[in-house]
Amino acid sequence: MATYVKNYQFVEDVAHKVHNLSSDALTYYLTTQAAAPAQTNSVLADITEIAYTNLSTRVAGTPTTATQTTGTYLLLLPDLVLTASGAVATFRWVGLYNDTTVTPTDALISYWDYGADLTLADTETLTIDYTTSTLTLA
Fold first, then answer.
1. Are 73 and 123 a contacting pair, CB within 8 Å?
2. Is the pLDDT reported for residue 106 higher than 90?
């Protein structure tokens, strides 16, 4: 199971109206770089992303749920199924960024650490299952 890590800059970005989590295009990225949550990694350009060559998709899509109950905000995204159509570069971290933001461009939100390198061979799939708990703000 992957470990969720919130990007520190994301908290400030929410306070400064950088994100509209109910309508912005939230997108996953794959990387072999340990993306420290500190403010030095605040936008996608700070991360070395692996190429999506031989993968079926990259967009996380529209949130399935973005609700607030008694002061706790819950954001749920649909599962993302990656299907390889050839060998895919090794990665360990799957991150989430806001592809809609202009200032800053591609603001980071969080990442999940799988704890070990992952590879996908031709026709293999990886389901990124975040439909139970993508992001909670309390």
1. no
2. yes
